[in-house]
Amino acid sequence: MMLAAMAADTTRTEEIIEERGAAAYTAEFLGTFLLVFFICMIVILNSAGGLGFTDWAVIGLIHFFVLMLLVHSLGGASGAHFNPAVTVTLAGARKISPPDAVIYIILQLAGAVAGALVAKALLVDEGRAVHYGAVAVNARVTDFGGFIGELIGTFALMWAIMASAVNPRAPRSVAPWVIGAALGLGVMVFGPLTGAGLNPARSFGPDLVSGHFDGFGTFLFVYVLGPLLGAGLAGTLYTAIVLRPQALEAGLDDVAVGPEGELLIAPGEGLEHPGERPIDKLE
Questions:
Q1: How deeply is 193 buried, as exposed, middle or buried, from its count of CB atoms within 10 A (0-12, 13-18, 19+)?
Q2: I want to staple 27 with a disulfide (CB 3.0 to 4.6 A). Which of 74, 75, 94, 243 is the partner?
């Protein structure tokens, strides 16, 4: 029994992470393409060159609707990341392997650029004033303020993902609604301050297409580092506050379920891999 537990422990890292393939990669590209395309379209249309005004409530609702649609339709294929900050956080939680995470991020960036290009092609004149949906820090806000806004907004988004998609006790039917609502909330609050990227790919695509990076240092600090830290903090805290205590509560901190449904018994196994314990398989 001890030898079996040790063997299970040494192979756990390789076995528990589901391998991704062409369908998942395609879903990440397509999902990010559609997400950025619709975001760019609504930002352009809600501008001086479009309808003549900017309504962040409408823009936030579009974020909500499109992400809800994509999570519902593509979640089963790829996990519906569409965001490098989400992918990095879930790779740290061992929900996706590092090689697959790298491929996801490359495809997310490519999908974002493609989505921005199509939006620009459709609305060349209308989008010029808002740089075709590119994000920018408001002149009344410092870069540090923008960084904090992006961090908090992405924290809320990642918290919603952990609670509704990663937590195995959450009803899966609510995930699209909760995740979409979290993004819409962040956009309505932080849109006037930073443009509410909350996603390095969404920020990168329109910025590259328009050539408007608002200063490359600002872009990296506010729109890359902010979301990465926000998502990572949400994933770490949710695991510590919710997922691991569930294992202790159930008394299954040394038991987990392997990839073939077998029991893996080793010290701390259930705590090390929350969400893979026998009790979590019971709906």
A1: middle
A2: 74
